[in-house]
Amino acid sequence: MKMSVGLLAHRRFLPLFITQMLGAFNDNLFKTAMVLLATYKIIDSPQMQTLFSAVATGLFILPFFLLSALSGQLADMRDKAAIIRIVKTAEVFIMLLGAGGLLLHETPTVAIPMMLAAVLAMGVHSTFFGPIKYAILPQHLESDEVLGGTGLVEAGTYLAILGGTITAGFVADDPRITALLVLVVAGIGWFTGRQVPPAPPVGEIEKLDFHFVRASIRLVSNTMHIPRLFLAICSISFFWAIGAVLIVEFPPLVKNVLTADETVASVFLAIFSVGVAIGSVIINRMLKGEVSARYSPGSVIVMGLFVVLLFAVAKSWTGLPGGELYDWRGFLAHSGAPLMIVALLGVAVAGGMFVVPLYAFLTTTVSKAETARTVAANNIVNSGAMVIGSVCAILMSLFGLPPAEQLLVVAAMCIVSAWLGWKLHRACD
């Protein structure tokens, strides 16, 4: 296996790497700042806070479910670099809308629809960019560089999520700064996206099917009949259903159980993100370039154990009385904080080790002419699973299950993920 970091010295990889990092940074800066603004400044009810977080997550995911088939067709049948340029231009206008919503936050009836519309539009943006960032790798990289490139993209994505999430926690109190930042980042992403080398279609050019329901059904059915692709997609999708529950629950858990402010909620999400990045790098080193699921079952079992630890720490947490909230310094000074951080980091590292090899299956099992559509089929199933996860989080909250107890449901879900990972490993032996 060639050294992954060495790919950053090449134009065939670096502009794509920077562009996708900036996109992930901006997505999470805007979404996190918006959710924190609503959780801490606009909405008082814990149930409504969870509902708003879930609605925002659902709106971002919805385009993946509806438009992934079209995005996969475009990425396989058009120049991927040209699509990147169009998508990054659209991001500038989307962030103008989102920035306007942030600036009008004192008028919630206007600001909330604008911000949610921007989240939906960013979901469309990511739907069309998502298949490209993986499908372009086999076209620009050598065969023994694909796993390393995939791991680097995953690590870069989660480091960008880390940066955007942490930044949001510290600027959420001043929407003017957030609005300026998202516009600046979108502008830089527009420039770097134009540096990605051409990636013309490899296979036969087919007619685009704009009927999204028919195209989606056909795309998924044409992909899922391959046994190990079916198992890989099911495994990834169940993992992201778990992730959706965790991400929806984090802000209410931090505010109402840990009695901590938005900077802590941001740090909480950031620790999760950097943990997945670390897991991405570790599993890449352990597999040494081999595309294999042999570590996936054990990884997700370890993830479940850390989720149980997270629950135990949350249940024993001593919060502040009278509506007071810890800031990030007070949180770190709390006697339970070190174990909380270890538990959260353990969940994320194990999760990264579970999911990264599965993405490599998607781009190495099929021909280069079909990689984008394979990733798109995966995105359709993933988005459906994440919507189900978000709905489960809403229902658990509406039926009165406390945020800490919901972590036990997540731990149980990890057992199913381990079974799917084991089935995939057996199918590839």
From TrEMBL:
The membrane topology of this protein is: Multi-pass membrane protein
> One GO molecular function term?
transmembrane transporter activity
- Primary residence: membrane
User: Got a GO cellular component term for this one?
Assistant: plasma membrane
Which is one Pfam family of this protein? MFS_1
User: Does this entry carry the keyword Membrane?
Assistant: yes
Keyword Manganese applies: no
Cross-referenced Gene3D superfamilies: MFS general substrate transporter like domains
Transmembrane region(s): 50-70, 82-104, 110-130, 151-171, 177-193, 229-251, 263-283, 295-317, 337-362, 383-401, 407-424
> Subcellular location, in the record's words?
Cell membrane
Sorted keywords for this record are: Cell membrane, Membrane, Transmembrane, Transmembrane helix, Transport
The record ties this protein, via PANTHER family, to: MACROLIDE-EFFLUX PROTEIN (PTHR43266), MAJOR FACILITATOR SUPERFAMILY (MFS) PROFILE DOMAIN-CONTAINING PROTEIN (PTHR43266:SF2)
The name of this protein is: MFS transporter
